[in-house]
Amino acid sequence: MTLTHDDIAALDKRCVWHPFTQMQDWTAGDPVIIERAQGVRLVDIRGDEYYDGVSSLWLNIHGHRVPEIDAAIRDQLDQVAHSTLLGLANIPAARLAAKLAELTPAGLDHVFYSDSGSESVEIALKMAYQYWRLRGQERSRFIKMTNAYHGDTIGAVSAGGIDLFHSTYRDLLFPTFEVPYPYPYRFDGPADECAAHCLAALDQILADHAADVAGLIVEPLVQGAAGMIMMPEGFLKALEQRCRDSGVLLITDEVATGFGRTGRMFACDHEDVCPDIMTLAKGLTGGYLPLAATVTSGAVFEAFLGEYNEQKTFFHGHSYTGNQLCCAAALASLELFETSDLLARVNENHATIRQALAEIAECEHVGEVRNRGFMTGIELVRDRSTREPYAWQEQIGVKVCDRSRELGMIVRPLGHVVIFMPPLASTAAELQEMLSILHRSISEVTE
């Protein structure tokens, strides 16, 4: 039986609860139903094509239906789809862990697998807390950044700072110390003063409470869900130095920034930062399958070693930890980085992005364009001279994204910030066409 668009739409509206979606609006609308994809385009059940302007939620690296990744998954299916990592090892998980230890900053040698970015952060927080207990210290607090987003599970939300997403659950969360993340566009003063202000706040917390702090968690270089807020140069390195000086573990959340998004394999690479714990997900499998990793230093790992009766074990795990299909996809994706010289192509095509964004920046209601590599946020404002934002109820970001969809590209807003994060394999011509659609959508909706 062939199901039509209307058939699937009816099933969806009756049974599916969509994430980050007001379902009353959803059930009143006409959904785009994706049936297939090819390269950087999605195709709906009616045959209409759309550029994948947000990499299917910041996941896709090489495009859709990549022959090498497809083949790797099929080959693994001929062997085994899944066996537990509790008490057993498997070939793809071991090979991938070794590859991640090779690619991540120096000293990160041990990989703990999970299924999503939120889970990788939960693991990082629990590891950091238990690490200090195993060393005979009770450190129960974490330092987080204003407007941080590390996922939607309770620990990750505790380490987050976006009231719209997190305030409802405040009574469920553990207490943290909060440091402002530098947001020069919304700071009353120069960018260097903004950074200094944020570091001064961190210095005060460390001066007063370092002995109580297990770790500092940060999105390196780019604060994604806050609206693509870009760190000033040198700020990440300054965070690392303060953690080293105060004996606090540094946790970098590279779920969104990892695997080439910023023009380097990891955002930490731009400033030669070596965290104690790094969290990875999203692009790890090239956007194919759910897989995450929490990668730790030898010092963190070794704190958990001991005799069986000492109970130093990290008592944490997930049913699909180290799943073979996921790890096979990740290995194929990482090999493509090398065989296609992808990072070099990303940096070459960045010139196309910057040129098109410079034109978008001239639009009357574009307050600021923020870009790092293939990560872009376009902040829309009612008044450029005063930086007055649009009211939430005006749904300006939603309207721009709706118009973009009508013109053939899928993008999503974060409030009044429109996000553009195409697959890294997009060609210069494809990027130019996508950004032309975005430019037209902003112009038509706001002017």
Separate helix tally: 15
Number of strands: 18
- Helical content band: 25-40%
Helix- and strand-based class? alpha/beta
Output the CATH class name of the largest domain: Alpha Beta
Describe the main β-sheet briefly: 7 strands, mixed
How widely separated are the two ends? 47 Å
Silhouette: globular
Share of residues in strands: 15-25%
CATH architecture of the largest domain: 3-Layer(aba) Sandwich
CATH superfamily of the largest domain: Type I PLP-dependent aspartate aminotransferase-like (Major domain)
Q: What is the count of structural domains?
A: 2
Would you identify the regions where 5 or more consecutive residues have pLDDT less than 50? none
C-alpha Rg (nearest Å) = 22 Å
As laid out across the biggest beta sheet, the strand order is 4-12-11-10-7-5-6
Overall mean pLDDT stands at 97
- CATH fold field value of the largest domain: Aspartate Aminotransferase, domain 2
